[in-house]
Design goal:
Blueprint (H helix, E strand, L loop, with lengths): L1 H13 L4 E10 H5 L13 E10 L3 E6 L16 E5 L4 E8 L2 E8 L6 E9 L2 E11 L2 E8 L17 E7 L4 E9 L17 E2 H12 L5 H11 L1
Parallel strand pairs: 6-12
Antiparallel strand pairs: 1-2, 1-11, 2-3, 3-4, 4-5, 5-6, 7-8, 8-9, 9-10, 10-11
Amino acid sequence: MAFILAVFCISINAQITSAKITFERKTNLYKKLKGNVENWLKEEDKIKIDYFELYINDTCSLFKPQESDLKENMSWATSKNTVLQNFKLNTRYVIKPMWGEELHLTDSMFKRKWQITESSRKIAGYACRKAVWQANDSTRIYAWFSYDIVPSTGPESFNGLPGTILGLATEDGGVVYFAKKVEVLTPTPATFILPKKKKIYTIPELKAQMEKQYGKEKWFKGMINEQFGIW
């Protein structure tokens, strides 16, 4: 009995409530851009890699692009969102680059219906369990979360699992996020303070405005779903 209690206490003490997690995102541009991409994009350049940082504590998480002075090839091909999630207030604040400007958005935290499976794997040294979310009729998202890292958060606007998401992927492998490093530390309060713009949209407000301007375009429905319905 004493042994069981000791193991239980060690397990509780080992759980992480604050950290900095570095993510690598791989985007298959052949799958993302579709069409005759092979005609102008070489096979060796089809995978675009981006890096992000996720800061977490028991109140908030901040997911943002990793800063770099290096010149980026094909920067236009992928989006780099900044997402602040406040668990206590159930809110998210998103800075989303679109059409050459940064749009600032606010909304409640995204709610998803997850199915937790028995499948598991190790990511960045942490045991993770696999969960599945059916985003829509054609898109399924896989997530691998760790019970050892307590806050219910992850890359982009993802949350809702009993632990932090360290791996995230579309079913076809077109977009894949994996944690490369977990640093157990306490982010400063200043980490979670974002610059604000005078114009801050609610997500329904922005979607309605875009619907009015571009709703008749063929590409509009797919773009809206990807930008606001999944990530």
